[in-house]
Fold these 2 entries.
Entry 1:
Amino acid sequence: MISGPILALDGVSKSYGDVLAIDDVSLNIAVGEVFALIGENGAGKSTIVKMMSGEIAPSRGTIRVLGEKVAFSSPRDALARGISVVHQHYALVPDFTVAENFALGTAPLGRLDRSALNRRIRTLAASVGVEIDPDALVGSLDVAGQQKIEILKALAREPRFLILDEPAAVLSPEDADRLFLAIERIRRQGISVVLVTHRLADVFRICDRVAVMRMGRLVVEGDVTNFAPEDLISLMMTGERGAALPSQPCARAATATAARGDTPVLQVRDLELHRANGSVAVRSMSFDLAAGEILAVAGVEGNGQTELVRSIAGLERQACGSIGFSALEGELSSHSPQALRQAGLAHVPEDRIHDGIVLTQSLAENLLLGHLHHPAFVRKGVIRRDSVVRQTTQVIQDYGIRTTGPMQPIGRLSGGNQQKLVLAREFMNDPCLLLAAHPSRGLDIRTSALVQGLLIEHRDRGAAILLVSADLDEIWAIADRVIVLSDTRMHGPVPIHETTRQEVGAWMAGH
Ligand SMILES: Nc1ncnc2c1ncn2[C@@H]1O[C@H](COP(=O)(O)OP(=O)(O)OP(=O)(O)O)[C@@H](O)[C@H]1O
């Protein structure tokens, strides 16, 4: 029987040059508990996780596993002590089967004993109450299926301690329910779980204890039952319980003023979209998007949302059908992405790291991306550095970006703070067509509200907005109509007030 914490941080700090990312944090995590780590963007959650999992070393302080002081020099060291992580970005090979992916990194080198491997996967899956087909191709699985493989891979390493980094953010409500049942079973096996999340509902639903981080410091740690949701919001935002909080924009109230146009800004007809591996993602999709409306595309990720947005952004070509953009003559795919941008299309991409930013460049340079034709920034082919820096400083202030300044490389910012800069850049210049793929994913509550308020504002000044989101709360808060992509089919479009979350949830689940 183990007494005392399985993992303890003792006065741990982490500096990056002059930036003190973590400041003297002490935490104890007990055996078999589910522990929530929460805080606003840039609060230090990922840095704590990276220290627990051996990715980085603390600058000061001690980490103990089962009372013994450890100094991890790599994730392999942490793994040897029973610490496993499931990251937000999965490292799976789409052309391999589930079993082959599972074998990568978990099976000994040499010939694969496929039937033994399949048995092992099924046994592990059954132990946490999930189903999985070991022979399925990973490329054919949706995001929930891929997450299952990552969790099973982590469990195959027989951890004592499992860290899940925002696991529910990408899931449909039904898949999130299944994930929470699996976590409950993992806990019953005596494994401790750390859950990093921005979703307070998940904290109250599944976690025993919670730690609130703010600006690199631990604000409070305690039993979840000691807190109400408003306490945690207040602690995350101000560091105090019961503080008067800034009021959130009331998204729906603005609907009545929406300047809805008659001619569609975007006209999609009989569209067929293929995935990178050639399989059909969506068959025969048609819809119009008017000025002054937000059309939400709901659905479990991997059902064609990525291909839809990339086709409209001019980044890939549809297999069949047509897309018309009212700002330009002819078929949209006959224009370059630059021409589309200049005509008023903006794009908040789903994959920020690949399509949204250049990690090694500064915030100012990243803000400039896509605005190189703008007279405020470039005159006679010369970049007006002062003006770019001034605008970036304003954006940092408006969006509350946690950074050392406009010249800091964006790769040094937390994920949520990088996303804020992308949003600011895409909202600049008042686009007439805005493609927003998961705009508030990874953002804290305050910034999600800010982003939703901005989407409403742009809709009300007449922008046409295509909002891809797996978050039904967000869709119900701001969208006018919704379509669901599931199993190569499109359901809707239907006005939000003519449907229910149950109906949309059922479509998402493929019913
Ligand atoms: N490599 C780095 N160099 C400099 N500063 C860094 C680096 N990595 C993180 N930081 C800083 O450390 C602080 C904490 O970042 P961290 O990623 O831990 O926040 P987070 O709570 O996980 O945020 P989010 O919710 O946005 O993911 C931020 O201010 C960030 O800018």
Entry 2:
Amino acid sequence: MRLLVLHGPNLNLLGVREGTSGGTLRDLDEALKARAKALGLALRIVQSNHEGVLLDTLASEREAVDGILINPAGLFGSYALKEGLEAVGLPAIEVMLRPSARESVVAEACVLQVHGAGGFAPYLEALETFASGVFTPGKPEPRKTLGRKQDAEDAEDAAPAKSAPAKTLGKKAPALALAPKEGGSGNKTLGRKPSSTDAVDARPAGKTLGRGTKGAPSATELLTRALVRQKVSERLAGKLTASELAAWARSRYEAVQGGLPAEHGQKQMLEDSLQRLTLSHLPATRLSDEQLVDLMTRLDEG
Ligand SMILES: O=C1C[C@@](O)(C(=O)O)C[C@@H](O)[C@@H]1O
């Protein structure tokens, strides 16, 4: 699996900026390459202080990579980056080294946010998430067992052949079961293992990622199949956009992980449905109207 890592403005000054801990950008990139190599991932890493360069890189690399790890830094409010990510249609994870005080627009085009508390952990977790195969349904990415003590050469060396199954699967197949089944326990986040790193699951339940998402219910509402069906039917009727449905599904998934009660005996089915819907606005994993109807039928049969 090949990934594009985009570092936004001023991250070239990482470690130099006052109050930033965890090393320099060079240290970060070395850590990324070493972990990528251990995981069998190939990385293309770009840092730029210019929004246009980030956008051009997204466009030029879109055919060559299977996923994107982006720290938009000060460009977290960029609709251009959000739309660029949506246009590219690859699974993207937004990473920030520290918790952000402000809501990120870029996150609306990402399947996951991982925010840390200093250090490189969120970036490394994002790599682990991609390597887990969570975005390549049905065929978990084979985890290479290369020793982590090996020299941190360019991670491109560890790249599997371009014809590796993950390459096409990630772009074509709709996400069927995106998170590893863990018996529905604990604070599972979308597709990654729980950890001490602050992430989406640390948000207050009920908070949505998208701005101005219509119809997000309160966190105290019971999650039922009927509710999910209703949202899907609103989408089919054009009352919700694809992004709004996805943002709603994501917020409900997070809320369930945070303890929101789900209809008795249906938690797993509801989680699976929400996961599919969370990615349903992205070109690579978009659900057609037919697939949405199919999902509703399966919820009926539940
Ligand atoms: O430049 C940065 C760094 C940052 O992206 C982070 O990774 O912590 C957070 C942003 O708010 C800030 O503008």
